[in-house]
Amino acid sequence: MAAKRKTRAVRRKSTRKRSNRRAGRNFFFSMLFILAFALIYYFFGQDIQSHIGTRLGGSGAIALEENEILVSFLDVGQGDSVLVRSRDHAVLIDGGEHAQRNAVINYLRSAGVQRLDYVVATHPHSDHIGGLITVLRQLDIGQVIMPEVTHNTATFERFLEVIENNNIPVTFPEPGDRIQAGIIDFFVLGPPNPHPGPQSNLNNASVVLRLEHGQNSFIFTGDAERELEDWLVNSGMNLSSSVLNVGHHGSRTSTTEAFLDAVNPRAAVISLGANNTHGHPHREVMDRLNARNILIYRTDQLGTIRMITDGQRIDLLR
Fold it and tell me: What residue ranges of the chain have pLDDT lower than 50?
């Protein structure tokens, strides 16, 4: 009897040892998994969180698949310029200051762009249309899209002259219009005519576009300020977008809480010049973006920013 009790005790002890070893192994592998995930999140966490990945693309031209769209936020200093292209079509939104004309035209040529289906001049300020003058002279242009406003500056006068001299058709868009070039599909969100706020504030006359491709979307806002953003929020139109091209170079006059709530972007791109005299981007805007854990990409830090989408995902080209 004593021998049986001893045998049972030995078995229980052996069982406890095996159980302890099993628990130890489980704990070890659990901790290993947690550590691996922590390391992955540390290095790639923003991509996991935002569903915006990375892809090696080099600095030169990239060959696009039939279903791919490449959005390039050009480094034009304190200004805005965005090239949207597919395999067979291209649209240019703004062109920075006149001093940046070579940067814009050289980028277009390096990308193999010889014709632009549309050139969008969001509004008449020189840091958006100055570089377009050379583009309109040197490339084949299908149509110019611009708001129906005027501006008493030499830059705007030259802009209008080159349009007239080259017989380029002009369209004044209205909210609800659609601008298409192959798989490039824009919806015009604004501005209304007349634009909101003081009519002398041409920032609120900015053409606002939403590019939709499959499950992904981009919203381009020019220099839209609070009044136009409020109008857009109250319009009932779909503003939700994967990527926000931040309005007015990150100025505190734009990117309001209500507008960010409506757009709800995964990432934000700010086009601005390094050490600019305006102090852009303003701290208030950065705080709003950071509070929502929105990825922030800045041309003053990264240079030209390129994002490619196949309609399923968005990759940042590095």
Answer: 3-4, 6-7, 9-10, 33-50
Of 86, 149, 96, 150, the closest CA to residue 118 belongs to 86
CA angle in degrees (0–180, nearest 5) for 72-168-76: 30
Backbone angles phi, psi at 42, to 5 degrees: -60, -45
Continuous segment of H or E residues that includes residue 65 = none
What does residue 311 show for φ and ψ, rounded to 5 degrees? 95, -15
Residue 179 half-sphere exposure, CB side, CA atoms within 13 Å?
A: 32
Confidence at residue 56, expressed as pLDDT on a 0 to 100 scale: 73
Q: Which residues contact 176 (CB under 8 A, 6 or more apart)?
A: 187, 188, 237
pTM score > 0.70 for this model?
yes
Alpha-carbon distance 175 to 207, whole Å?
A: 9
Q: In Å, how far are 180, 259, 283 from 132, measured between CA atoms?
A: 20, 29, 30
- For residues 245 and 263, give the distance between their C-alpha atoms in angstroms, rounded to a whole number: 11
Angle at 221 between CA 219 and CA 224, to 5 degrees: 150
Phi, psi of 112 (to 5 degrees): 80, 20
Domain 55-317 - what CATH class?
alpha beta
pLDDT digits (tens, 9 = 90+) for 201-239: 999 999 999 999 999 999 999 999 999 999 999 999 999
What ranges do the domains of the chain cover? 1-50, 55-317
Distance CA 228, CA 246 (A): 14
The structure tokens listed for 190 are: 């604004």
